[in-house]
Structure formats: structure tokens, C-alpha cells
Amino acid sequence: MSNRDDRIRHDQARLARLGLSRRQFLGRSGALLGGLAVGPALLAACGGSSGTGSSSGSDKSVSISNWTSYITDQSKKDFTKDTGIKLTYTEDINDNEEYFAKIRPNLSRNQSIGRDGIVLTDWMANRMINQVKWVQPLDAAAFPNKANLRGPLKAPGFDPTRKYSAPWASGVTGIAYNIKTTGKEIRTVQDYLDAPGTKTALTEMRDTVGLFMRSMGIDTATPTYSKAQPAFDALQKAVSDGKIKGFNGNEYVSDLGAGNLSAAFAWSGDVAQITLDNPDVRFAVPESGGMLWSDNFMIPKTTDKANLASDWINFFYDPKNAAILTAGIKYISPVEGVDAELTKMGGKAAALVENPLVVPTDEFLATLAIFGPLDSAEEVKFDKRFSQILGSG
Amino acid sequence: MNERDEQGRKRARYSPWILLGPGMLFLFLFFFFPLYTLGRMSLSYRPSRFANPKFGWEWDNFSHAFSQYGSQFTRSFVYAALATLLALIIAYPLAYVIAFRGGRFRNILLGLVVVPFFTNFLIRTLAWKTILGDQGTVVGFLRDVGILGPTGTLLRTPLAVIGGLTYNFLPFMVLPIYVALEKIDPRLIDAARDLYSNTWRAFRKVIVPLSMPGVFAGSLLVFIPAAGDFVNAYYLGNAQTSMIGNVVQDQFLVQTNYPVAAALSFVFMAIVMVIVVIYAWILGTEDIA
């Protein structure tokens, strides 16, 4: 045990305390297959059968969709105990685009998707709020704990007053590598490209292109295609030179551990799992900077339970409940005062306060950037070029 | 002519239609209707990016599908053809041994061909990722004996994709060939021998022609799904091995461009149809029926 503590204290291995990833790879691929097989039209036909668009007062129940491993059983129980609201919690979000494709047929026809709350990443939140407008405002009266929202997250470009969205958790995109295969530490995107062995990047466009943009000193806060073009060219060259062999979700998890991959663009939480068993696998935020993303809770426009859904998010903006959640999922909490509550919990939870990937320091946050919103025309250009580089566009 | 005959004749006239009914209904519901919807979608346009497509004779979708994705189409059919050929080379001897030399183990051997199918398709494909991985024994061995260079890899190469396709669709080749071989009357082979034919000649002149229906069916059962597959290229290939299935997946789930995805599916179907017709014409359809 003490032996392991030493290791954990050392260097990047503190990542070992991070938890499971929400982007579970089988779930993702399974959903992808399922999505293709069934097709959106059929989903539209059989989707909203568990309709929640009815009677909000009498039964007091709420239905939430979220990513995998993004909740603890304790939190679910506490919620129902505290609020008396029955909870239906579904972990059916594995990929932003795929989930969008799934809910699109219903929401575009103004039909219920059987959910009162969904959680999507910043850029998809932007699409939901500003482009397709399929979400409704959070109920301010039911969400007094909104005051606990951390300063830096209060006014994102896509929702300047956080009228429609509340962050659920945040994480970091950087480079994971197996030091046995690379032979040395990876500190920059160039190091990653030069490392021997097979390397992959992420299919999530903003993460992969974002890291390239930052490595070339291109600002990611207000991205345009013309500004990002050099980063795309560099990425394309890396692919055609065979330096980047493939793109994946989190299949890299097992491959990195086995040494089949030497390095990969990766999400902080995923790497934690591997590091726990295999200290050779490490996570680095490139010197040029990493990407910071948040997943945001929103309420679909087709539910009339906005108040109950707001009760749900309000519950998790209580620092005490937020601390229990953070101790379980080990992602960055958007709630002010979580560190103090974690310390109070003692033991392993208290130790998380020292981990910048769970409770980030200001210096650490300064090295991260958020990929800013793209307007629809720009997004089409980004997606198209990225698909071409992936070989499917 | 009595009344019962009259009734019987009437019944005879309608009974084919009644018997065809369920099948026709099935075809209509699950083939013609979806085909119609797909055709309509492929000629639709999008008023705005996330709006639902509207029908409007949008032939641009087809020219887009043809002009942009030529390399993926070519790759799909080349990979599928190679996988079909490989599957044939592996399956024919296998089916031959099971049919003629299987004896009492015949059913067990056939079962063994099918058993891998009990495992999920995705899991089987992902298993190949481990087998062909850089640290796997296969790559290690091939590097040691010098077939692969010291940094050579198997995973994320065209070879891995074609291998995956061959593996995943192999049983579809084995079973029809087995059925065709098993039906052959052994007395025909004896007759060939009596007429001074040696083993090889009997095989060439008797067994091969009689097994052609199986080869034909097996080839189609492998070629068509392999050409449309996207899982193998996605997990075992790289950015330069993507097939048309990957493009359709991307258009559907990432670009959410349903009309182009539908047009791509239509073009794919048309090409498959042409290939099948040519194939049937070369092999001679009278053997097939």
C-alpha cells in the first residue's frame, strides 16, 4: 500500500486516482452499430413511448439521460430521499453526434424524447441552444444553488447567462502514452508525432484539431476555418505520413495498456483507469496547452417538467452533494466549495483535492483552453475537412 | 362437370396468390416501402442544416455521391472481391472435406464452422485488434522471421481489413458450398472413374460444375455484405482504408446529411446489382437455378 502511495505521489501517476471514464468504448461502438441498424426514422416511430410530457405535479418523477460512469449510486439515492422525486436515470449518451442523431427525429417534430434532462458537451450544447433551439430555460426558482457555479464557467459564449445550461462536470484532453514504448516522456504534440510505434488521435474533432491548433499557437477560443487550416494541414500530413495511424473513441484504453499503442490523444479520466493497473501509462498536457471541455445539463423543450429537472441539477449544485459525486466520478466539479467538502469527507476523497485534474489549480487551468463555438457554416467546413482526413468524407 | 370440380378449380386459381400473400406483404413492408422511402430521401434537399429534408428532385445528391467518394467505392469493391476470393479458397477445401470425408463427424464439423457465430460480430472483430496488435505474437513472429520489417505492423493496414472481412463472412461461403457438394450423387464420381477419369479430372469435370450453385450463392453472400461493411474498416483499418460503409456512417451520424447518405446507399445498391448480373451471366444462370 505504501509502495503504491509513493508511486501515486510521483509525477503524473497521480492520475491513478481518477475514476472510470464516461466514454466507455463498447457502449460507444455498440450504440454506433445500433444507431445505424435501427435508423433514425424507426427511432422516431418508437422513441417517445415512455412519454414524460405528462402530469408533472402528481407523480413527481424525472427522467435523466447521461454519459456512462457519470453518477454514483449514492447520489441517486440521496436525490430521491432529499427531494421525494422519483428518478429514472439512463446512461445512453456515448457520443455527442450519435446522441444528436438519435434525438433529432423527435425533437425536430416537437415530439417528446422521454427525457427531462440531457447532458451534452459544450459545442453540442451550443447547437442545442443557439442553432436548433431544442432546449428550454432552466427553472430559476427551482435552481437557487446556481449561485455556487464557479466563476470561469459562468458565462460561456454559447450561453452567456447560463439560462439554458448548467455544467455537469469538466475534463481535460491531452496526450496519453506508454513510456515503455515511447522510451521517453512526451511533452509536446511534436514529441507525440515523433514517438516510435502506433499512435492515434480522437474522432472528437474539437479535441484532435484543438490540440493541433494549440501546438501551432492558433487560438481556439474564436475558431474559424481559415485560421484552423494550418492545423488541419499538419494533421493531414501526420496521417498521410503514417504518424497518426488511426482515430478512435476510447478504444485506446486497452491498447495503451497492452503497449499496442505508444501514444494517443486521450481524455484525462480514461487514462486514470489504465494508470491504476499500469504505471507505465502516463498522461501529459502538452506544453502548448490542453483542451478543457465541459458537459452541460439541459432540459429538452418537449418536457413540461422543467421545474423537476431543475430540482435535479439544483441538488448537485449543493457543494456537499457535488463532493460525493466528484469523489465517485473523479471529474472536475463546476461547483464552488467542493474542495472544502472533499477535505471534510477525509480519506481518499480528501486526497483528490491535491489532484489538479480533479480540483484544478489556477496555474493548471491557465494552460487549458476551451474550443469556442463555430457557427453553422464554419462547423460544416470543419466537419467536412475532418471527415476527409479520417478517410470517410 | 359437377359443382365440386368447379369449386376446386376456383380454389386452384386463387391458392397461389393466397400462398404468396404473406411473402408479398413482407416484401412490401420491409423491402419496397423502405426502398421507396430511401429513394425519396435521396432526392430530398435540406432547407437548413438541421431541418428535416424535403423532397425536391435533388439530383445533386447523386452527382455528389459519385464525384466525392469514388475512391471509397473502388476500395469497397476491391476489398470485398479479395475477401470473397480468399473465403472461396479457404471454404472450398473445407466444405469438400466435411462433405466427402466428414463421415460421422460431419455434423460436428459443420457445427464448428458455425460456432464462432455465437460470439457477437463486434467482439470477434475487436479480438482481431488484439491478435494483430503491435505487441501481439503474430506481429512479433513475422518480425522475427523477417516477413515484416522491425517496425512493420499488421493492424490498421488494408491486409487487416481484408482479413477481417474474410474471417467474418467465411461461414456464409462454407455452408452453401457444403450443401451443393453434399447433394452430389457419389455414383456420378464412380461413373467418372469407370470411364477412366483420374481423381483430378473427376473433380474438375464432375464435382466443380455441380458445386457451382453453392459457389455462386456463397460468393454473393460474402461479397455483398462485405462491400457494405464498415465495422472491419473502422476497427482494423486506418484513414486510407475507409470503405463506403464508413462514408455512409459519417454522413448519417456525423454530418447528419441524410439525403447524401441515402444517395450513397442507392448508388451502392445499383453497383452491386450490376456486378451480380454480370457475375450470373458469366457463370451461366441455368446452372444456378
Task: Give me some keywords for this one.
heterodimer, A: 393 residues, alpha/beta, D-Maltodextrin-Binding Protein, domain 2, 2 domains, two-stranded parallel ribbon, 45% helix, globular, B: 289 residues, MetI-like fold, two-stranded antiparallel sheet, 1% strand
Give the SSE layout.
The complex is a heterodimer of chains A (393) and B (289).
Chain A: H1 2-9, H2 25-46, H3 56-59, E1 61-67, H4 73-83, E2 86-93, H5 96-108, E3 118-121, H6 122-131, E4 135-136, E5 165-178, H7 179-182, H8 189-194, E6 199-202, H9 205-215, H10 225-240, E7 246-248, H11 252-258, E8 263-267, H12 268-277, E9 281-284, E10 290-300, H13 306-316, H14 319-329, H15 338-345, H16 347-351, H17 362-366, E11 368-369, H18 376-390
Parallel strand pairs in A: 1-2, 6-7, 6-8, 10-11
Antiparallel strand pairs in A: 3-10, 4-10, 5-8, 5-9, 5-10
Chain B: H1 3-42, E1 44-45, E2 54-55, H2 60-68, H3 70-101, H4 106-114, H5 121-132, H6 137-144, H7 158-183, H8 186-194, H9 199-228, H10 231-236, H11 244-254, H12 258-283, H13 285-288
Antiparallel strand pairs in B: 1-2
Helix pairs in contact in B: 1-12, 2-12, 3-7, 3-9, 7-9, 8-9, 9-12, 11-12
Mind explaining what this structure looks like?
The complex is a heterodimer of chains A (393) and B (289). Chain A has 393 residues and is of the alpha/beta class. Chain A has two domains: 25-170 and 294-362, Periplasmic binding protein-like II (D-Maltodextrin-Binding Protein, domain 2), CATH 3.40.190; 172-291 and 372-390, D-Maltodextrin-Binding Protein, domain 2 (3-Layer(aba) Sandwich), CATH 3.40.190.10. Chain A contains 18 helices and eleven strands. In chain A, the strands form two sheets. In chain A, strands 3, 4, 5, 6, 7, 8, 9, 10 and 11 form a nine-stranded mixed β-sheet that branches. Chain A has a two-stranded parallel sheet with strand order 1-2. The longest helix of chain A is centred in the N-terminal third of the chain and has 22 residues, at 25-46. Chain A starts with a helix and ends with a helix. Residues 1-57 of chain A have low confidence and may be disordered. By secondary structure, chain B is mainly alpha-helical. Chain B has a single domain (63-288), classed as MetI-like fold (Orthogonal Bundle). Chain B contains 13 helices and two strands, in the order αββαααααααααααα. Chain B has helices at residues 3-42, 60-68, 70-101, 106-114, 121-132, 137-144, 158-183, 186-194, 199-228, 231-236, 244-254, 258-283, 285-288, and strands at 44-45, 54-55. Chain B has a two-stranded antiparallel sheet with strand order 1-2. In chain B, strand 1 (44-45) and strand 2 (54-55) form a beta hairpin. Chain B is flat, with a radius of gyration of 24 Å. The two termini of chain B are 39 Å apart. The mean pLDDT of chain B is 90. At the A-B interface, helix 2, helix 5, helix 11 and helix 18 of A face helix 5 and helix 11 of B.
